[in-house]
Amino acid sequence: MIVLPSSSNRFSLTVLLLFVLSMPGCANVRGFLNESLPFPMHTADGIERNDFVVARDVDVIGRLAMIRVEEGDTLPDIARHFSLGLNTVSAANPGVDIWVPEAGERLLLPMSFILPDAPRKGIVINQATMRLFHFKRNAHLLEVSTYPVGVGTEERPTPMGKMYISRKKHLPTWYVPASIAADHRKKGDPLPPSVPPGPDNPLGEHALYLSRITYLIHGTNKPASVGLRATNGCIRLYPEDVSRLFENTPVKTPVKIVNQPYLAGQRDGIVYLEAHTPFEESGTANWKKVYAKLKKIEKASGNALDWKKVKDVVIEARGFPVPVSAIPPGSDMAMVEPLKLWHPSRLHGKPDVPEFQTDAWYVLAATLTDKVDARRLAAIINHQGPPIPARVLSKGGRHRVLAGPFENRRAARDAAKRLKIDLELEGVVFET
């Protein structure tokens, strides 16, 4: 039996680790990804992001894709455009800088998923993969809509088990829990008892309340956090994804939350294995079940699996389905090889940075000697929630990271306070 990686080798993609994970490097996409295929071949609109028909006895949906990175891209922007979480894009492309990926670099888009080992009914959320699956019957067809999610931190984890949607609310008010209010007071950021709908509301514009009191499925004003362990236990979706889920999910819809970092399944006679980095020590029991499932499939088919590849998939934990059996003659290779995509003309949700203005207020967030570091910091600031526009101004080998413009001194001071609390930056407020 394959031994799981020790807890010392595991990591969690949290906001505090983004600087570490964004160190420069090159992705090494190996194995069945064919580098010889022409690139690109298809538009980004030619691949399905969310909605799939689930055929009988099929466990794998979607397909992989690849694009070339362009100047100014960030992994959070690419992830959001393709309805992926930051966790999946980062894990699938180890070594790629999250905030300043190298232009021209090939990026694997893990838009293929193995369905969770759970009844295909209602909503199933797999914490380990940070993915939500919404199953619906349409005549004789089983359909599934799937979206990336953010989940609870280690200190405030998302609860497991069976629940249901108790009610829904468009433009919800956020009533601040006492524990969160206490945390913010410690940071010098006191919160009001409630936050009305608007850009400062962390629930976004749509909320689905779970039968487990105080827990919700909701939108966010921090879209870059989708695909991270960054919530206080709730399930967080991109604004556009939660809008669709809200519209298509009736009250009383069952919800089941599972934790399955290892998944095995079949499609077109091919056996796939998908591995994610487990949360703490949560993966051992799940792996034993998946290992037994793989052995059962091997015995029933009479065809040996590639157990060396199985081991590699588990150790690398790249977070997408990888074939671990021989590919039968006549199989649809289009579903195995990544689809090569043209880069979209504009990435959906990418923050806008207004032109530099005179007679406006700014915050000098930092002055750095390395331009790449300055670009990285500006990108991080741009992806705060609500967004804080930031840019790099270079002169004489010095690179200033400026947040703004702001209409008045008060707005600039509020932004400086957020930079201090969220990123520990000592910003200087000034007027141009």
Please provide a written account of the structure.
The chain is α+β, with helices and mostly antiparallel strands and 432 residues long. It folds into two domains: 10-258, L,D-transpeptidase catalytic domain-like; 361-431, 2-Layer Sandwich (Alpha-Beta Plaits), CATH 3.30.70.1070. It is built from nine helices and 25 strands. The chain has helices spanning 18-21, 75-81, 86-92, 178-186, 239-248, 283-301, 307-316, 371-382, 409-423; strands at 51-54, 60-62, 65-68, 106-109, 112-114, 122-126, 131-138, 141-148, 151-152, 161-170, 174-175, 194-195, 206-210, 216-218, 229-231, 235-236, 254-258, 262-267, 270-275, 322-323, 339-340, 361-368, 390-395, 398-406, 428-431. The strands form seven sheets. It has a nine-stranded mixed beta sheet, covered by helices on one side. It has a four-stranded antiparallel beta sheet with strand order 23-24-22-25, covered by helices on one side. A three-stranded mixed beta sheet has the order 4-3-21. The model is unreliable at 5-30 (pLDDT under 50).
> Judging from the principal axes of the Cα atoms, what is the shape?
globular
Number of domains: 2
- Work out the strand percent: 25-35%
Q: From the alpha carbons, calculate the radius of gyration and give it in angstroms.
A: 22 Å
Q: Please, what is the average pLDDT?
A: 89
CATH overall fold name of the largest domain? L,D-transpeptidase catalytic domain-like
- CATH class descriptor of the largest domain: Mainly Beta
Query: What is the CA–CA distance across the termini?
Result: 65 Å
Low-confidence stretches: 5-30
Structural class: alpha+beta
Helix content: 10-25%
Order of strands across the main sheet: 1-8-7-6-17-10-13-14-16
CATH architecture of the largest domain: Beta Barrel
Distinct helical segment count:
9
CATH superfamily caption of the largest domain? L,D-transpeptidase catalytic domain-like
> What summary fits the major beta sheet?
9 strands, mixed
Which oligomeric form is depicted? Answer: single chain
Total DSSP E strands: 25
